[in-house]
Specification:
Helix content is about 35%, strand content about 0%. It is an all-alpha fold. The protein has one domain.
Length: about 45
């Protein structure tokens, strides 16, 4: 489960963080959080 490792909804950014935005369209039947976490795992 990628989500458990890479998806942290309560994370608060720091002034030193570098942020990037990605648009992800999950495949049918895949939760958005899981698809986003899979992209984060490859970054």
């Amino acid at each position: 489960d990628y989500k458990l490792t890479y998806y942290t909804p309560d994370y608060e950014t720091k002034d030193t963080d570098i942020l990037a935005a990605f648009r992800v369209t999950p495949q049918p039947g895949v939760p958005p959080e899981e698809a986003g976490a899979a992209v984060a795992a490859e970054s």
